[in-house]
Design goal:
This protein is mainly β. The chain has one helix at residues 86-91, and strands spanning 14-17, 21-22, 35-37, 42-50, 57-64, 67-71, 76-78. It has one helix and seven strands, in the order βββββββα. The longest helix is centred in the last third of the chain and has 6 residues, at 86-91.
Length: 93
């Protein structure tokens, strides 16, 4: 088991997609490779988890009403007011 790095984002934080996000098969009612979220679309983190073996953080982001997409840190960037990451807030104390 790897020790996870500090999370870059936290629950309730506003984020936006770095790139277009496509269906990888996780949404069975949508065609595979369908565009789910456009680059720059804003959303809010509604849950944060960490893969136990790899230590990879996984963020569930609601981009629009009832569209919640699982994202990795590299697929997101902070947006909106108070966009500092959790790690930056901790380091500034």
């Amino acid at each position: 088991m790897n020790v996870p790095e500090p999370r870059k984002f936290e629950w309730g934080q506003r984020v936006s997609a770095v790139d277009d996000l496509f269906n990888d098969g996780s949404f069975p009612d949508w065609p595979v490779d369908a565009l789910l979220v456009k680059a720059g679309d804003a959303g809010e983190i509604v849950q944060v988890g960490t893969h136990a073996e790899s230590g990879t953080h996984i963020y569930l982001v609601e981009f629009r009403e009832r569209l919640v997409v699982g994202c990795l840190e590299g697929e997101l960037r902070s947006s909106g007011a108070g966009a500092d990451s959790a790690a930056e807030k901790i380091n500034s104390v």
